[in-house]
Amino acid sequence: MKSLPLLLLAPLLASSTLFATCKTTDNLQVNWTAFKTPLKKGVSGTFSKVITNKFATGSINDILIGSKASIFTTSINSNNAPRDKKLWENFFALMSGEHIDSKVISLTGDNKKGLVTVNITMNKISKNIPMMYTVVDNKIVAKGVIDLFDFTMQKSLTAINTACFDLHQGKTWSDVNIAFTLPISCN
């Protein structure tokens, strides 16, 4: 019988590192990798303008839960200005609104790794996206995948595939890898 309370406390003790005191700035970086060609060649980039709410100080949970970001699609940056112009004109300009909104709604894990669920609103459609996170080199890094069809982005996908038909060899994929990186310091 004495081991029962210890068994009940074990999950709490294992997750106590989730409650370390951490702080961060609003230097959130959002990255994406889209895919082209039948061989699924990746094209990566970021957005130069991301506006966030003020992040809390406290545990990883405190910092992430409820945090919001507005990602301005006009600030697309793939380190290739002609490509960025084409992505804006033939993809993002066709969706409703000029930004993608996100809000972290849940988190399970500790101060090293876990699962964060982010509600993403794009093209007036909201979806909960699971993202695996790790804390490495004083940064929270979360990675996940969205499917453009889930956000009714078929028109945009068709337009960019048409505009880049030869370069993409007739194939632009609907899945896009997404990631965010947030610098933190914990004690």
Commentary on this structure:
With 187 residues, this protein is α+β, with helices and mostly antiparallel strands. The protein has one domain: Lipocalin. Helix content is 20%, strand content 44%. The chain contains four helices and eleven strands. It has helices at 3-14, 60-64, 81-90, 154-163; strands at residues 22-24, 29-36, 41-47, 50-52, 68-72, 76-77, 99-109, 113-122, 125-136, 139-147, 175-186. Strands 1, 2, 3, 4, 5, 6, 7, 8, 9, 10 and 11 form an eleven-stranded antiparallel β-sheet that branches. It is elongated, with a radius of gyration of 19 Å. The two termini are 36 Å apart.
Estimate nothing, just give the exact number of structural domains.
1
CATH architecture: Beta Barrel
Give the overall form: elongated
Biggest beta sheet summary:
11 strands, antiparallel
Supply Rg.
19 Å
Give the CATH class.
Mainly Beta
Number of helices: 4
Tell me the helix content: 10-25%
What is the CATH superfamily? Lipid/polyisoprenoid-binding, YceI-like
Query: Hey, roughly how much beta strand do the residues contain?
Result: 35-45%
Total strand count, please? 11
| Helix and strand run | HEEEEHEEHEEEEHE
Question: Structural class, please?
Answer: alpha+beta
Estimate the mean pLDDT confidence: 89
